[in-house]
Amino acid sequence: MLEDLHIKDFALIESASLEFSGGFTVLTGETGAGKSILIGALSFLLGGKADSDSVRAGAHEATVSGTFLLDVAQKGAFGWLSAHGIEAESAGGSGGQLFAGGARVLLRRLFRDTGKSGAWIQAVPVTRRELAEFASFLADIHGQHDHQSLLRASEHRRFLDAYAGIEAEVEAFAERYAALAEKRREYAALADGAERRAEKIDLLSFAVREIEEAKLSESEDEVLQAEESRLLQFEKLYAAVEDASALLSGGEQSILPLAKRLNGALSTAEGCDQTLAATARRTESAFYELADIAEELRAYSRALAFDGGRLVAVQERLALLFRLKKKYAAVQSPLAEVAAHAESAKAELAAFEQGAESRSELERAVSSLERDVRSRAESLSAKRKQAAAALSAAAEAALAKVGMTGARFSVRVAGREGAEAGKPYGAFGADAVEFLFSANPGAPEKPLAKIASGGEISRTMLALKTVLAEADPVDTLVFDEIDSGIGGEASVAVGSHLQKLALKRQVLCITHLASIAACAERHLKIEKRAEGCRSAIGVRALSGEERVAEIARMLAGDSASAQSREHARALLGKGVPR
Q1: Distance between CA 71 and CA 89 in Å, rounded?
Q2: Cα–Cα distance between 35 and 53 in angstroms, integer?
Q3: Distance between CA atoms of residues 329 and 242, nearest Å
Q4: Domain ranges (residues) in the chain
Q5: What global pTM score does this model have?
C-alpha cells in the first residue's frame, strides 16, 4: 500500500506531499488541472520513462519519493528484496525482512535536466529496470500509462493459475520439468554420435600418451633454457672466466699478490698502532675471500667444455616442450598446465568408459520423468480450461456492470508454440494462455493488449481486477480515465465496483464523474494556479463542505447553488461507505 508520496519540481508540480490510506481514494479537478501529471509522477517513481519535460521549468532536477507498506502476504516483493540484499524497515520500527505487521520500503527517483537520473530502493541505488521490476509487485497503473500487468500476455497464465488455485501444482510441475531437462541433457551427452564419441576418445588418448611419453618434470623448460644459453655463448663465457682468473692471480701485478702485500703492510702497521687492528682484519678477510674466488674460477674453468651434441639435444627437447605447450596449454604458460591437461583428458576418458553403463540407466530415468511430466501437464491443462470458462463468464458479467454491455471476454488456452516441433511442454506445462476481448457485439475477439480506447482499457482492467482480486498480489491499483464514455447507471456501477475492489486493495482513481467520486472514502483535489508567468499544480484533501462543493461542481459545473449542493450531499450520502 502506498502510504505517502513526495513530489518536487516534477512537470508543473513545484512541491507536493500527500499521505494515503487504504481503501478508495479519488482524485478530481477541472479539466487541464494536471490530474494526470500526478499519476505521471507516480508512474515515474515506479520505473516509468522520463524526459526533459519531467523537470519543472526553472528547476534542474525532478524528484519523487514514496513509502510503501508491504503486507506479509506479498512474498514476491520480500523475495526480490532478499535476492538483491535490500532490507525493508519493520512497520513496527525495527529492521527485518518478513514479520507480522509487514514492512515499509522507501522508493526514490530523480531526473536531471542534463538527462542523468538515479533510483534508490531504501538507500540502495538500483537501475531503472530493477526499480520497475520491484515496483511491479507494488502497484499497477491502468489507463493511459504502460504499467499494466494484465495487458502482458506473458502474465495471463499466472493470473489464470492463481484464479484456478493451482500455483502449487504448477511449481511442482516446473521442478519435475527441470529434472527432465537435466536428465535429457545428460543422456544427450552420452548418446552423442558413436563416431563423434570414438573420435573424441582417440584425441584424448593420443594427448595422454603424447604427454606421458614426454616424461615432463617440473620447471624443466626453465632449466634447459639456462643450459642452452650457456652452450650458445660458450666462447664468450670461457674468455670472460679466463680473463677474471688472470686478473686475480696471473702474475706479480695481479690482484692476489697485491692484496697479499697489502695485508702484510697493514699487519706491520697494526703492530705499531692497535687502532688499525679492525682495518687489518678486514683486509685479511678480503684477501682470503679473493683467494677462494680465484680457486672457484680455476675449478670452473677446468670443468668448462663445449659439447655440441648436448646443445642439439637441449634444443630438440625445448622444441618438444614448446610444441606440447602450444598444443595443450599456451606458449607462455608453465609446463605444469600441460600435465594438468593430461589429467583432465584421463578424467574425460573415464567418464566415457562409464557412459556405456550409465546410458541405459538414464534412458529409464528419462522415460519415467516423461510419463510423469505428461500426466502432470494434462492435469494442469484440464484445470486451466475449466477455470478459463469460469473466469470468462465472471469477467463478462463484471464488464456488463461497468457499462460494457455486449462486450465479450474469453480466456484462450491453447498448445504452446513449438508443440508441432516435438516440444509440447515448457516450464509451466503444455499451455499458452491469452486473454481475448471484444468491446462491441459482432466484432471479433482480439488479444487484450490490442484494446485501443483508454476508457475501455481501464474499465476492462477494473472488471478483471474485481474478478481476480484474490489472485493478484499487487496491493495498490491506480485507475486513470476509467469514466471515459460512460455515465448514468454505468458510472454508478463503476463506483460500486471500485468500492468492492477497495475492500481488499488500495484504490486510487482519477475521475470526472460525481457518481464515482462520491463513492470514495478519501477525496483529493488537484488545482492549477498561476504563479507569475508560470503555472503550478497543487493538491489538497477535501472533506466536509469543501467536498460537497467539489461534487456539486462535477454534477452541474456550479458549486455555489443550493440545489447543486443538495444534490451533492444526497449523492455523497448514498455513495460514501459507512
Answers
A1: 12
A2: 16
A3: 43
A4: 217-334
A5: 0.58
